[in-house]
Each structure stands twice: as C-alpha cells, then as structure tokens.
Amino acid sequence: KQEVTQIPAALSVPEGENLVLNCSFTDSAIYNLQWFRQDPGKGLTSLLLIQSSQREQTSGRLNASLDKSSGRSTLYIAASQPGDSATYLCAVRRGTDKLIFGTGTRLQVFP
Amino acid sequence: EAGVTQFPSHSVIEKGQTVTLRCDPISGHDNLYWYRRVMGKEIKFLLHFVKESKQDESGMPNNRFLAERTGGTYSTLKVQPAELEDSGVYFCASSVNRGQETQYFGPGTRLLVL
After folding, report:
1. Residue of B nearest to A51 (CA)
2. Chains A, B: CB pairs < 8 Å
3. Per residue of chain B (114 residues), what is the pLDDT tens digit?
4. How far apart are CA A100 and CA B74, in angstroms?
5. Measuring CA to CA, how many Å separate B12 from each of A20, B20, B109?
6. What is the distance of C-alpha A38 from the center of its chain?
C-alpha cells in the first residue's frame, strides 16, 4: 500500500530564505508526482508535475526534484516571500489515475 | 477558461439528512475525480469518471455515497443519510486525458454534519 509522508508538517521562516520541503513515498512504482499549493479555504493549485522518467521540473522560483528509486521528492522554494505562505501537498499517481496525497507542509513566511 | 467549479461552497446539515454536492469540470475534460479530506487526515480519493462511466470507485466509503455523471458533463455526489464522520472538504478534479495529465482541482465543498 502506497503511503506518502511530508516533512516537516509545519515551517515558519523569515522572508528571503531558501526552503526545502520533503515528500517521501513507500512504493517507487509511480507514474508521476505532483506538487500542489492550498491557500486557506481555497482549492488546490497545481505547481509542478514530474513524470516518473524525469528528475526535476522548474517553474519560476520553484524547483521540484524526483528520486524514484529512493522514494523521495523535494520542493525547493528560492527567496521565499510572504505570498508563499500556504499548505504544500505532494501527491503520487500509480498505474491507476487516482492521486495519493501526503498530509502536507504548512508554510508561513513572515516579513 | 473557467476552472473546476463546485457547489455549494459550504453546507451544514444534521445527521440523517441528505446532501448533494455538484461539480462542473473544465469544459472538454472527460476525466472527473472526487476526493475528500476529513479533519486531520490527508486528502483521499473517492472515485473517477471517464465521461459518464465510473472507472474506479474503490475509494467510496460505503453505500450511503452515490455519485453520478449523467451525460458526461457535471457530476453530483449525494450523501444519504449523512453521518457525523462524513464532515470534511469534498474536492472535485478534472483532466483532459488519463495517465500523464495534470489534475485540476476545484475549491471544494465544506460539509459539516451536526
């Protein structure tokens, strides 16, 4: 059974810091991995999608890496801003279409 | 392009009542998914439609939950009768194709059963 874990559960940092959020999964036979952002009371916004054959994806200040063999992904946020404050979720997809989510990392960036 | 929309945004009902949630996927998306998050837990898959057919309903918790997607457009998720443990946030997502596609999520319906 696939399990997805995110560490840390919560993180509070001053503006400008570079951050690393971690996601680990127990079954390496994944199809792809997706990082989402959720703002309070809002839905999920897709940030990055990494296919199983890829090692990383970048979008602006965000970089996500995938090491399928070790069951790990990291989301790197450069030069964090208060607007980055949100809950970050990773989700893996196996052969079926459903996503299996981690419990999330709640990030607060203070000025 | 309009995103995934869900209605209502919030619902408060009493135990034993019926509630129907609606999801309108992005136009042209054949794949529609329902997920939910109960308090303190991770988001979990409920079911997946391809057009009007149920492709995977392995996540449906019990027979009090009924999902439909008539005509392959919008979908409804009915809970009857609602129980306290059904409280949570119900998300809908859609994608163009299966497999490698990004799933786009709606804002969710917050359900509270008293």
Report:
1. B100
2. 59
3. 679 999 999 999 999 999 999 999 999 899 999 999 998 889 999 999 999 999 999 999 999 999 999 888 999 999 999 999 999 999 999 998 766 678 899 999 999 999
4. 23
5. 38, 12, 11
6. 11
